[in-house]
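REQUEST FORM: STRUCTURE PREDICTION
Request ID: SP-0412
Submitted by: Lab K.M.
Chain count: 1
Length (residues): 208
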Amino acid sequence: MVELGPLLERLLAGQFICAVSDEAAFRRLQDDEIREQLDAYLRPLNRRLATNDEGSVYFLAWRQLNDDAREQLSRQLGDTVNSLLPLLEWLQLVQEALGRDGLAAPGDVLKPADFSSRCEDNQGLRERLERLATDPFFGSQSDQLDAQIKQVFKRLKEHGYLLQPHADRQYFVVTAKIDYLIDLTRFIRDEEHLPVDEAAPGDQESLL
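STATUS: Completed
RESULT:
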């Protein structure tokens, strides 16, 4: 288990592992034997390795929703819900500003310069970006378009939705954590009995 220590630490810290964020680690997690080893170690911690339906991203979930797990899960869900609307608005803005047919998907390359040029030429997009950038989740304090876009991309990178392969090059790659976000959105849409302590344990565990 020593060689899996760094990977375990990342998972326990709440990181999401996908082919974009860490291809080598993602390949290891696709190995049945390694997943069994990790689950054996995690069992006494009441945690387990989980993935989404598509198998595009790995993360930790609670094994059983006891009182401690429920309390932490409730806090996590609360934090995620607070960021959900600005993140969904960002996804829609990406789709409209860049003329895409669908939502941003893992592996998509996004360039801040593309957003800047589109928003400069479209007052409606410019106003929406300003509202988005000044949302508490993104927290921009600037009234300059380029600075607002920079702050949005910075926050998305900090939260693991984007990866910047090269610090000196201004392009970003969408990670599979976006798949988790979309799954969570569908879960909240389909479940009317929130908060967490009123929701079905099986459904919570499969998503969170």
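NOTES: The radius of gyration is 18 Å.
Reviewed by: T.R.
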